[in-house]
């Protein structure tokens, strides 16, 4: 080949290179996101920022395959995985990363199904790394601006498609603070309890606000039963929420959006008193009860800081042989715990505020034999998603047992407040979209002063009669 022919062939190759480079960078944008396609189906929200980062990685790798760029790709990829998982469980990226230390406490019933998606993502990341490194071309400068425009269009389209309301995990955002506590006089009644008076606060795990009023009413029907309403006035409402379970707890206990990691002795000195502390100072004994380990989310550390005089966790009840419920968090079942330890705490002398954080309705939900207002097998079922239907049945059963307990407790039980912590983090999009995106329900029951007999009516409560 003559020199002229060689130069001509080189020029033709250069003319073809921009098309190849453009296709390569576009492939980086597409291929790097393929492992996450399934998350769009379940509705975890927009990943527009990661699309832009993958496009940048395509441009950098196309220019020069520096080892540092490969490391940077993996940092972005792993951050993408963690961020997506965090959104599923209503954590911010930093909060979720900080919670990694609690992973050994997770015991999913079906470990393969729980961890397999993350293992597949890791394998996919290796395949993507090999592909984009193996087929890397060189990119001329003139392609940077056109591809940047294509990326902006892709990011905008992705944000428009993926930013569904159901993917909002951060709750009310800049909306004014709200809690069930501030919408009721539970705090005032607790601080002014008569001799031997009791109050009960229940924060119900993953108890969301259904859009369908018929479903909401079916779940809460036992609280509206005649044996309950004969003794208690019932107030129903909703409250805005933000974040995960500890934030839901602190929303009600302390009257503000807080993260449990921000509570220590120094921070406590600069913040207003939480209700348990106020109650304790007023001579009301305060006890916090939860059927899982107190080490989870450091509750053994911050429960005393918000004012609980006593704490009761799963490790404190090992000798009572209470039934365990399976799930991602294997702990004591709510209902046996409610019918034994909670019932005991509501008896006896002295003024007391009992706080109960439930556990069993945590997702992924494992079916339990409580409550059955919904048909979860039929073709025309009210709740199409099977797991959501089972959880709704369980919540109905829980409400039935709560209703039976309060109807059979003596007049010393002054008031009961039941409120959800956050919207349930269901995986499937259709299940997510059954709930309001920024509110949770609450029920407030206050003792009527013209109290009636109570001991023999509890057995009629659970069915909502």
Structure description:
With 465 residues, the protein is α/β, with parallel strands linked by helices. The chain folds into 2 domains: 3-163, no CATH class; 181-460, Alkaline Phosphatase, subunit A (3-Layer(aba) Sandwich). It is 45% helix and 11% strand. The protein has a 7-stranded mixed beta sheet, sandwiched between helices. A two-stranded antiparallel sheet has the order 5-6. The chain is elongated. The N and C termini lie far apart (96 Å).
Summed up, what is this model?
With 465 residues, the chain is of the alpha/beta class. It is built from 17 helices and nine strands. The protein is 45% helix and 11% strand.
């Amino acid at each position: 080949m003559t020199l002229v022919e060689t130069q001509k062939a080189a020029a033709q190759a250069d003319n073809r290179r921009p098309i190849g480079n453009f296709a390569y960078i576009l492939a980086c944008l597409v291929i790097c996101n393929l492992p996450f396609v399934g998350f769009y189906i379940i509705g975890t929200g927009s990943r527009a920022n990661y699309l832009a980062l993958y496009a940048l990685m395509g441009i950098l790798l196309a220019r020069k395959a520096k080892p540092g760029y490969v490391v940077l790709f993996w940092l972005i990829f792993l951050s993408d995985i963690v961020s997506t998982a965090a959104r599923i469980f209503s954590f911010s990226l930093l909060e979720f990363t900080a919670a990694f230390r609690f992973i050994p406490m997770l015991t999913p019933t079906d470990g393969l199904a729980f961890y397999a998606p993350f293992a597949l993502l890791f394998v996919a990341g290796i395949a993507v790394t090999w592909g984009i490194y193996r087929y890397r071309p060189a990119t001329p400068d003139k392609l940077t601006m056109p591809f940047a425009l294509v990326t902006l269009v892709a990011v905008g389209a992705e944000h428009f498609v993926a930013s569904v309301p159901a993917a909002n995990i951060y709750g009310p955002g800049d909306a004014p603070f709200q809690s069930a506590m501030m919408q009721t006089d539970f705090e005032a009644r607790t601080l002014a309890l008569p001799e031997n008076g009791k109050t009960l606060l229940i924060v119900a795990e993953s108890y969301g606000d259904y859009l369908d009023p018929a479903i909401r009413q079916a779940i809460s029907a036992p609280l509206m039963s005649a044996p309950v309403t004969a003794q208690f006035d019932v107030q129903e409402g909703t409250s805005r929420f933000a974040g995960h379970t500890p934030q839901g707890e602190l929303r009600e206990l302390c009257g503000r959006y807080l993260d449990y990691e921000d509570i220590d002795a120094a921070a406590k000195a600069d913040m207003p008193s939480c209700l348990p502390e106020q109650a304790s100072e007023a001579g009301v004994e305060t006890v916090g009860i939860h059927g899982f380990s107190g080490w989870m989310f450091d509750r053994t550390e911050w429960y005393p800081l918000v004012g609980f005089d006593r704490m009761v966790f799963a490790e404190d009840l090992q000798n009572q042989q209470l039934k365990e419920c399976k799930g991602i968090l294997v702990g004591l079942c709510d209902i046996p715990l409610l019918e034994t330890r909670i019932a005991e705490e509501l008896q006896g002398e002295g003024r007391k505020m009992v706080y109960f954080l439930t556990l069993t309705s945590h997702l992924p939900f494992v079916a339990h034999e409580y409550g059955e207002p919904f048909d979860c097998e039929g073709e025309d079922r009210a709740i199409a998603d099977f797991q959501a239907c089972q959880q709704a049945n369980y919540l109905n059963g829980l409400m039935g047992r709560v209703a039976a307990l309060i109807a059979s407790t003596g007049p010393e039980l002054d008031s009961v407040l039941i409120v959800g912590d956050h919207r349930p983090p269901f995986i499937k999009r259709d299940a997510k979209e059954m709930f309001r995106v920024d509110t949770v329900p609450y029920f407030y029951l206050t003792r009527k002063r013209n109290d009636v007999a109570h001991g023999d009516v509890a057995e009629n409560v659970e069915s909502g009669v």
